[in-house]
UniProtKB/TrEMBL annotation:
PANTHER family: ABC TRANSPORTER ATP-BINDING PROTEIN MODF (PTHR43553:SF3), HEAVY METAL TRANSPORTER (PTHR43553). Pfam families: ABC_tran. The keyword Transcription does not apply. SMART domains: AAA (SM00382). The lineage of its organism: Bacteria, Pseudomonadati, Bacteroidota, Flavobacteriia, Flavobacteriales. Signal peptide: none annotated. It comes from the Bacteria. Residues 183-405 form the ABC transporter domain. SUPFAM superfamilies: P-loop containing nucleoside triphosphate hydrolases (SSF52540). This is ATP-binding cassette domain-containing protein. One of its GO terms (molecular function) is ATP hydrolysis activity. InterPro entries: AAA+_ATPase, ABC_transporter-like_ATP-bd, ECF_ABC_transporter_ATP-bd, P-loop_NTPase. The keyword ATP-binding applies.
Length: 408
C-alpha cells in the first residue's frame, strides 16, 4: 500500500489538488493514484453531502437514526461519513485533516481504525499543521503553492509572530454596557425526542471573561451555544439570561444577534453564494449570511483596516468561495469580529488553519483580551498553545445527559 502524508500551506488551492488527483492527471510521485478509485473524506465533502440531503429531503447515511446528518454533532458526522466512504470500496481515500473536530478518545479510536485500514487501502492525508500527521505514515511531504510540487517538510514552519503588530481597529458601534453577567444559564436542560442531551446546566459568564467550553463529541457544546445565540427553540421557557435580559422577555433574536459575533467551522457551509471577501466581512455588521444592503464608507474603511491586519488586503475583491478553506475561515473570524461585539463566540476557530494562520488567530484573541473588554467563549477539544482562558467550563456526559462543571 502506498501512503502519503502531505502538509499544505494555506496558499495551496486544496480543491484543485484534489480535483487533479481524482481526474487522474496528477504528475510526480502522486501519479500512482492516477488510474484507481479514490474517495474524499473532508469537511467540504461532508458540507456538500449535507446540502444534498437538505435539498432533496433525504436521509442517506443515518437511516437507522431516522434523522438527517446535519442534526448530528460534528464529531458524529465525521464518524458516520467515514463509514459511507468505506462502503464505496475505494482503492484510496484522501483524508483532509482527519483528526479535526474529534475529542481525545475519538482521535485515539480513529487512529487505531486508520492504522488497520492502511493495510488494505491507500491513504493520502492532507494536513495544515505538522502535529496532525498520522504517526503511521512516514512518507511525509510539503506542498507550498499551486505548483503542487512535493518537497521536503521544512523543519521550521513560518509563523506570524513578526506580522501581527497591529492594534485592534476602533469600534464603529457603541453597545449598551449596562449589564454584569453576559450569560446565565440556570438549571438548563435540553432533550431531543426522549434523549436528554444536557441536564440542569448552570453556567455564568461575566463581562470581559475569556472562557473555554470543552466536552467530548456530542456532549452538547453546540447545543449550549445555540441557546445563547437564540438559534435553538429549546431555549423557550428556560431560565436563561443573556446580557442581563431574561430570554423570552421581549428582545427579538436580531437584537440579541447584534451583540454577538459568532464563528463556527459549520458557517463555511452556508456561504456558497458569490460574494466578495469585502462583502462577506461587511455582512458581519448585519448578521446576515451574505450582504444585501449598501454598506457605509466607514464600514468599508473598517474592513480595509482588518484586512490589513491579517495581511489579506489583496484578496478584498476576490470571490469568497474561491479562497481556500483556511483563508475562508480567517475571513469568517474577521466577519464575527468586525462589529466588535460585546460577546464573541468562536467554535473551533483553529481547525483547518495552517501554523501561520492559527498563530495569527491566537494572537488576535490575545490582543482582544488584553486591549478590549470583549467577552469570549472559545470552543475547542484541546487547550491551544499560546491561549490562556481564564475559566474552563466542561460538559461531562452521563447516562441522563451531560452535566456541566467548572474545570479546575
Ligand atoms: N435535532 C436533533 N435531533 C436529535 N438529536 C440532536 C439534534 N441536534 C443535536 N442532536 C444531538 O445532540 C447531541 C449534542 O450535539 P452537539 O452538536 O451539541 O454536540 P457537541 O458537543 O457540539 O459535539 P461536537 O464536538 O462533535 O461538535 C448529539 O448527540 C446530537 O446528535
Amino acid at each position: 500500500m502506498s501512503h502519503f502524508a502531505i502538509l499544505l500551506s494555506n496558499k495551496v488551492d486544496k480543491e484543485e489538488l484534489i480535483h487533479r488527483l481524482f481526474s487522474g492527471k496528477i504528475t510526480g510521485k502522486l501519479n500512482v493514484f492516477n488510474n484507481v478509485k479514490g474517495v474524499l473524506f473532508s469537511d467540504l465533502a461532508i458540507a456538500d453531502f449535507l446540502e444534498e440531503e437538505h435539498k432533496h429531503h433525504t436521509i442517506e447515511i443515518t437511516k437507522a437514526e431516522k434523522r438527517q446528518l446535519n442534526t448530528f454533532s460534528s464529531g458524529e458526522r465525521r464518524k458516520a461519513y467515514l463509514e459511507y466512504c468505506l462502503a464505496q470500496n475505494p482503492d484510496y481515500i484522501i483524508f483532509d485533516n482527519p483528526l479535526d473536530h474529534l475529542d481525545y478518545q475519538s482521535r485515539k479510536d480513529l487512529l487505531k481504525r486508520l492504522t488497520e485500514l492502511s493495510k488494505t487501502i491507500s491513504i493520502i492525508e492532507l494536513v495544515n499543521r505538522k502535529e496532525s500527521f498520522l504517526p503511521f505514515i512516514k512518507n511525509r511531504w510539503f506542498i507550498k503553492d499551486n505548483n503542487f510540487k512535493l518537497t521536503e517538510v521544512p523543519k521550521i514552519i513560518e509563523t506570524s509572530q513578526k506580522i501581527f503588530k497591529a492594534d485592534i481597529p476602533n469600534s464603529l458601534l457603541a453597545f449598551n454596557n449596562d449589564y454584569k453577567s453576559v450569560v446565565e444559564l440556570n438549571n438548563v436542560s435540553v432533550s431531543y425526542n426522549d434523549t436528554v442531551i444536557v441536564k440542569d446546566v448552570n453556567w455564568s459568564v461575566s463581562k470581559g471573561e475569556f472562557w473555554q467550553l470543552i466536552g467530548p463529541n456530542g456532549s452538547g457544546k453546540s447545543t449550549i451555544l445555540s441557546l445563547i445565540t437564540g438559534d435553538n427553540p429549546k431555549a423557550y421557557g428556560q431560565n436563561i439570561y443573556i446580557f442581563g435580559h431574561k430570554k423570552g422577555s421581549g428582545e427579538s433574536i436580531w437584537d440579541l444577534k447584534k451583540r454577538i459575533g459568532y464563528f463556527s467551522t459549520n458557517l463555511t457551509e452556508l456561504f456558497k453564494r458569490n460574494h466578495t471577501v469585502e462583502q462577506m466581512i461587511l455582512s458581519g455588521f448585519y448578521d446576515s449570511i451574505g450582504l444585501y444592503q449598501e454598506a457605509s464608507d466607514l464600514q468599508k474603511q473598517k474592513v480595509n483596516e482588518w484586512l490589513r491586519i491579517i495581511k489579506m488586503s489583496e484578496f478584498k475583491n476576490f470571490y469568497f468561495n474561491r479562497l481556500n478553506l483556511g483563508q475562508q475561515r480567517l475571513i469568517l473570524i474577521i466577519r464575527a469580529l468586525v462589529k466588535q461585539p460585546p460577546l464573541l463566540i468562536l467554535d473551533e476557530p483553529i481547525e483547518g488553519l495552517d501554523q501561520e494562520n492559527s498563530d495569527l488567530v491566537i494572537q488576535l484573541i490575545n490582543t482582544l483580551i488584553n486591549k478590549t473588554d470583549i467577552t469570549i467563549i472559545y470552543v475547542s477539544h484541546t487547550i491551544e498553545k499560546g491561549l490562556s482562558p481564564s475559566n474552563i467550563y466542561e460538559l461531562i456526559p452521563t447516562q441522563n445527559g451531560s452535566i456541566g462543571k467548572l474545570k479546575s
